[in-house]
């Protein structure tokens, strides 16, 4: 055990010698090391003989120091086992402060992680793995297991109206990998710019830049993407969240949907449909996927990150048939395909009805939480106007004019309430002050408490 203490001398003397009075110097050095956590609770100290030899001082000096620190509670003696570091909490003035946790995480983009169906997924993982053939344990088809693609094609057709054969589905590690694959194909074809929604996900600009592309912001209003503004650009591809615009929450109107698809067909353009949380609708029937109308000019993108958990890293891409081969080639060169084990679990989860059951349960859960947020806002902050409330995992509240939404976010953060400023999603347009509030991760009672605190801040 003494071998682990060969550098204790350097630890204790890192800031100087023990001084003219080695007993006091050693006592101070040990006390500081324990208080700051450099000597951790539960570690055994060297014997007085060993430490005295390391430091070149009398053993009696070390014995006296140990006796004093035992009396102060920094050390504890265990009969027949030596001297150990006691459970002493580091002092705040000598240890860097850790950021306070967000007591109320109301940021958008995250489902209830506590609602993840752990037992059902473990069953699916076990059962799905047992059904894999020996050959399927080798390098996978870059597009994914055919059994998974078959189940997904059936699910997407049944729930979202997506038109595809199983061979047309590509399994991805989520939305961003799907976008990366499409960007790689478009860049290879000579495209330099892709249109994106404004306001929208600001990380898309970074993603596009990493692929040698520029993002062109296109305004969004109450009907969705402004197609007339898109038509005035040279862009031949656009990323849209047509079913539930992120972050405004509006659904693209029928007229805009027709105009967008007409634009794509007349220009040879590509609509990249990010259908990130379309499974969650509370007050109206879900809007079908754009891909169902013109599959030849729409690339459909979906993910489990919003319905189950981002940790799964599972999503899907249904590109137009003309792009499928290039997409799969880029997928093969990127990572040689995803995990067959996770895909096998998803296959079983879909086939057994586990995914449908999970969606039914979480729809009820999220509707209850949304309603709790709306009720609390009406009671405590009646001059904050909610919009985009019909579905998804978040809503937007428009603040009274004159407020700065970024300052409001900073002020709420001092109360450990985490929300997002609507203005932070805009690139080229002016928006009224607002907050983007996610409600999936907190219980109704905690949502109510958070809103009450917002009203006091």
Automatic annotation (TrEMBL):
InterPro entries: Aminotransferase_I/II_large, HTH_trans_reg/aminotransferase, PyrdxlP-dep_Trfase, PyrdxlP-dep_Trfase_major, Tscrpt_reg_HTH_GntR, WH-like_DNA-bd_sf, WH_DNA-bd_sf. Residues 20-88 form the HTH gntR-type domain. GO terms for molecular function: transaminase activity. It holds the Pfam family GntR. In the C-terminal section; belongs to the class-I pyridoxal-phosphate-dependent aminotransferase family. Gene3D superfamilies: Type I PLP-dependent aspartate aminotransferase-like (Major domain), Winged helix-like DNA-binding domain superfamily/Winged helix DNA-binding domain. SMART domains: HTH_GNTR (SM00345). Keywords: Aminotransferase, DNA-binding, Pyridoxal phosphate, Transcription, Transcription regulation, Transferase. This is PLP-dependent aminotransferase family protein. It comes from Kribbella deserti. The keyword Kinase does not apply.
């Amino acid at each position: 055990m003494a071998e682990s203490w060969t550098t204790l001398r350097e630890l204790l003397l890192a800031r100087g010698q023990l001084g003219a009075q080695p007993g006091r110097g050693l006592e101070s050095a040990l006390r500081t090391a324990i208080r700051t956590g450099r000597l951790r609770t539960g570690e055994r100290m060297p014997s007085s003989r060993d430490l005295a030899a390391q430091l070149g001082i009398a053993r009696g000096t070390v014995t006296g120091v140990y006796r004093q620190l035992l009396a102060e509670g920094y050390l504890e003696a265990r009969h027949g086992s030596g001297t150990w570091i006691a459970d002493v909490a580091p002092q705040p003035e000598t240890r860097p402060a850790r950021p306070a946790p967000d007591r109320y995480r109301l940021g958008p983009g995250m489902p209830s992680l506590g609602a993840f169906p752990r037992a059902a997924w473990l069953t699916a993982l076990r059962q799905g793995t047992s059904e894999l053939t020996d050959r399927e344990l080798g390098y996978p088809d870059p597009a994914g297991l055919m059994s998974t693609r078959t189940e997904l094609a059936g699910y997407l057709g049944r729930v979202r109206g997506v038109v595809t054969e199983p061979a047309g589905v590509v399994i991805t590690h989520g939305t961003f990998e799907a976008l990366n694959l499409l960007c790689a194909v478009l860049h290879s074809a000579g495209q330099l710019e892709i249109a994106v929604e404004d306001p929208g996900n600001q990380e898309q600009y970074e993603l596009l830049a990493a692929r040698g592309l520029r993002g062109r912001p296109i305004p969004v209003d109450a009907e969705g993407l402004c197609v007339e503004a898109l038509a005035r650009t040279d862009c031949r591809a656009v990323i849209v969240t047509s079913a539930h615009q992120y972050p405004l929450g509006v659904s693209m109107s029928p007229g805009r949907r027709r105009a967008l698809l007409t634009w794509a067909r007349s220009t040879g353009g590509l609509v990249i449909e990010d259908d990130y949380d379309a499974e969650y609708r509370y007050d109206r029937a879900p809007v079908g996927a754009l891909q169902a109308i013109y599959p030849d000019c729409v690339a459909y993108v979906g993910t489990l990150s919003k319905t189950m958990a981002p940790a799964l890293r599972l999503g899907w891409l249904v590109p137009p048939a003309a792009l499928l081969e290039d997409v799969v080639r880029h997928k093969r060169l990127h990572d040689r395909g995803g995990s067959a084990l996770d895909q096998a679990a998803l296959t079983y989860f879909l086939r057994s009805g586990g995914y449908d059951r999970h969606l039914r349960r979480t729809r009820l859960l999220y509707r209850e939480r949304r309603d709790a947020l709306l009720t609390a806002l009406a009671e405590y902050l009646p001059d904050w106007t909610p919009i985009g409330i019909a579905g998804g995992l978040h809503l937007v509240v428009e603040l009274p004019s004159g407020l700065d939404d970024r300052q409001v976010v900073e002020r709420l953060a001092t109360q450990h309430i985490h929300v997002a400023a609507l203005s932070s999603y805009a690139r080229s347009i002016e928006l009224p002050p607002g907050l983007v509030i996610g409600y999936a991760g907190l219980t109704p009672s905690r949502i109510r408490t958070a809103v009450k605190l917002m009203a006091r801040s």
